[in-house]
Write a structure and sequence with these properties.
Mean pLDDT: 89
Shape: elongated
Strand order of the largest sheet: 1-6-7-5
Largest sheet: 4 strands, antiparallel
Oligomer: single chain
Radius of gyration: 20 Å
Order of helices and strands: HEHEEEEEEEHHHHHEE
Length: about 270
Amino acid sequence: MPELPEVETVRRGLEPHVIGQDIVKATIRERRLRWPIDQGIEKRLKGRRIMAAERRSKYLILVLDSGDRLILHLGMSGRLRIVDSGTPVRPHDHVDLTLSSGRLLRLHDPRRFGAMLWWPGHAREHRLLTHLGPEPFDPAFDGDYLFGRARGRRAAIKNFVMDGRIVVGVGNIYASESLFRAGIRPGIAAGRISLARHRRLADSIRSVLAEAVEQGGTTLRDFVGADGLSGYFQQSLFVYGREGQACLACGTAIRKQLIGQRSSFYCPNCQR
DNA sequence: AGATTCGCCTGAGAGC
DNA sequence: TGCTCTCAGGCGAATC
């Protein structure tokens, strides 16, 4: 499941293959993603040059020479690959962008939770991006910010940090891992956590994501695959998916708890 | 407004 | 072996 580090890894891997490339042709085999792919997007894409590959939250944004943008989201199971033309089409290969290099940028997404959206150049902002909170690596994101936003909030801290309006890019796995590093139990109300602990949490979120980006970058070298935690970071997980196993810090059995319908993992000894 | 629930999907794994 | 069932999860939309 692609989280922010995976999407950033994909973006970096994509860059050398797509920057400066013209889109010779767009082939859409399946329009029914999370939202239907616009009819006629093929014509709008044809002949456009890709000027930049950006990321906002978990959205990939291809900036075109026309000033328009193409927004891609990988959802749960999306993958983007650069493949040679003539590479056999497998099930769930929904979109091909044929590039002037002769290769294809191919979108593959079995569960179709992903998206491909047109963002016209004349629109200042896209509605999906307007409400988003700061990037975790943005200087504006720190413990004081988190603490301020948490005033009066009774939601569990884990749900709070997974709320994209508060901070983007913290998915289920990294939320559990960040809270472990910060020593905070996932079910505690966000508004009842001290400033000092919010600072520790903000630091943990940043460091967990930064490490994952580094390791994703060294692992998914063949590119451009986003199969989630296929990389080394999987070996760095302290609590996620480790129910009943010994805490790597203290040996206590890791517990699993449902919070907001999501599996959450924590060490009852290290996290209070 | 904040909190909670729902719905969209397929593949992997468990159980029979 | 092969079926059925359960679960996983991003996140916007709807509802409470």
